[in-house]
Specification:
Number of strands: 0
Structural class: mainly alpha
Radius of gyration: 26 Å
Largest sheet: none
Order of helices and strands: HH
Number of helices: 2
Strand content: under 5%
Mean pLDDT: 93
Length: about 60
């Protein structure tokens, strides 16, 4: 099935024209939110890791030699 390249390009341009691009403010705000969420997740998992490490160390020293 052969497609017409000109038709394809015209349809592609028509679809791109329908895209609603975000404003600069929206991009900046969502970028800031991503950095905040990444920092919160890093802190959360660091605390969880520290807690698991402490618990495991307690168990190993309790049952160790």
């Amino acid at each position: 099935m052969a497609t017409n390249p000109v038709k394809f390009i015209n349809e592609t341009r028509a679809e791109i024209a329908k895209v609603v691009w975000p404003t600069r403010r929206e991009v900046v705000l969502t970028t800031i939110m991503v950095f905040i969420m990444a920092a919160l997740m890093a802190a959360f998992f660091s605390i969880v890791d520290l807690g698991i490490r402490q618990a495991l160390q307690l168990v190993l020293t309790s049952f160790g030699s």
